[in-house]
Design brief:
single chain, 457 residues, mainly alpha, 2 domains, two-stranded antiparallel sheet, two-stranded parallel sheet, 4 strands
Length: 457
């Protein structure tokens, strides 16, 4: 005998028949409204990265918990498990994704699974998954109840000895079986099994549609975060330069004060030294504020809440591989980039209404192909040029370093003036910064080329 279940809502047969007709139209309307609003909200929130989220969630970010396929809890519709861990991600990668360091090679995963865009995607899926799971669960419960009734009828039939009564039980069992599944073509679409299957299919199709429509936005955000990461590295190097300049001008200012005390410097000399020191300190402060702003905006876009951004740090650039770009086959790489580029792929998938002549679709396809070819060629040449500039900057830095070291020895021996010595130090500091920034540019050029191969351009 069947066990007693907790009371819950059941769709009666009329409701089940109406569900198919009414829900299909309502579902499509909601789906297209969602698509239009969802992408617009994504772009708006991405541009407004500095806006903090308060206790009250903003529209479109109702919840961020994991969403699973109806009836199949092991299948995640949002690409993460019940702990928010991306499916198939190893322990080391997951641990890195949970820390407060933004590394370059983590950005794509951060955009996909933790960012503002990821939260919107999960919320959009959830808005439908909750309702559709309830529908599927309700249909599943109804099927289970009917099968329990069939089981009861079969037991009663087995206990019955009267042939007429047995025939009545068979007739009732047949009717109930047809409610669950029916091979007759006219009635097939009204069965509970088909309704359940249609509901599950509709949800998974919608999830695929949401992800597909969000892909271009994810590419844009990922590309922007890559650029911001490299830009931050440049600011960090400038910060080192400004700090060294401030330290140098502070030493010059303090030396001028000592000289003034013994009559070897005038008040104007002191004032000039003070102005240079304040200018250097202002440069340092302004640059540090720019670094803070970029870091916090990156953290907000990539999923940290406003209260936690102060704990976030930006990782270091990968090592520069001087041989990478020299070993690449540009034509082969262009073909590879075509497989992942959003604009190129969209143009190639456009339907061509008129197969005779050269029309708008042909123009779009050819223009996107040419644009991608030009972009990849520019990135390739840019990486070569950045590598050459880095080598040149390193050569200049080595010269400035030797000159500074010679000037230090001469200054200590009293053979050169303070003006000449500090001039050599100033040149050294600038040359060092130029060499380091050239290294950043060279690494960035290679990374940009590698990103373009994956469609992030």
């Amino acid at each position: 005998m069947r066990t007693e279940k907790q009371p819950h809502y059941r769709l009666n047969r009329c409701e089940k028949l109406l569900f198919k007709k009414c829900h299909k139209t309502e579902w499509n309307m909601k789906k297209y409204r969602l698509m239009a609003g969802f992408v617009s909200a994504s772009m708006a929130l991405t541009l407004a990265a500095g806006i903090a989220y308060g206790e009250e969630k903003m529209p479109g970010i109702r919840t961020t918990y994991n969403v699973t396929a109806p009836g199949e809890p092991e299948q995640s519709l949002t690409g993460v498990d019940s702990n928010g861990r991306p499916n198939g991600m190893d322990d080391a990668a997951w641990a890195r994704l949970q820390d407060d360091v933004i590394d370059y090679d983590e950005i794509q995963n951060l955009v996909e699974y933790k960012s503002i865009i990821a939260k919107q995607q999960t919320a959009a899926v959830d808005n439908y998954a909750v309702n559709m799971n309830q529908i599927v669960d309700s249909i599943s419960d109804s099927i289970s109840d009917i099968r329990d009734q069939i089981s009861d009828l079969k037991e009663a039939k087995n206990d019955e000895t009267d042939a007429a009564k047995k025939a009545e039980y068979d007739a009732q069992i047949k009717i109930l079986n047809k409610i669950i599944t029916n091979s007759d073509s006219d009635a097939y679409e009204s069965t509970l099994s088909v309704q359940k299957s249609n509901a599950k299919t509709s949800l998974t199709q919608l999830v695929s549609s949401i992800k597909k429509n969000m892909h271009a936005t994810k590419v844009s955000v990922t590309t922007g975060m890559y650029s911001a990461f490299i830009g931050y590295q440049t600011l960090a190097e400038l910060n080192n330069m400004y700090q060294k300049q401030a330290d140098m001008y502070r030493a010059m200012y303090e030396r001028t004060l000592r000289q003034q005390a013994v009559g070897a410097a005038t008040a104007i000399d002191v004032k000039n030294a003070e102005v240079k020191l304040k200018d250097a300190e202002l440069n340092l402060s302004t640059n540090a504020e720019s670094m803070r702003t970029i870091k916090e905006n990156m953290a907000l876009v990539l999923g940290w809440d406003h209260a936690a951004v102060q704990n976030v740090s930006i990782g270091v650039l990968p090592e520069y591989d001087a041989n990478y770009i020299n070993t690449r086959d540009l034509n082969a790489d262009i073909s590879e980039a075509q497989l992942h580029n959003v604009d190129y792929g969209s143009a190639q998938s456009m339907a061509k209404p008129d197969i005779t002549g050269y029309g708008e679709v042909d123009i779009k396809r050819n223009s996107t192909r040419q644009n991608l070819n030009i972009t990849m060629t520019e990135l390739y040449n840019g990486a070569l040029e950045a590598g050459a500039e880095y080598e040149s900057a390193m050569a200049g830095y080595m010269v400035a370093k030797r000159q500074k070291e010679a000037s230090e020895r001469s200054f200590a021996s009293g053979l050169v003036s303070a003006t000449d010595y500090y001039g050599a130090v100033t040149k050294y500091i600038a040359s060092e910064a130029q060499a380091n920034i050239s290294a950043i540019n060279a690494v960035g050029a290679v990374l940009n080329y590698q990103a373009a191969l994956k469609g992030f351009v």
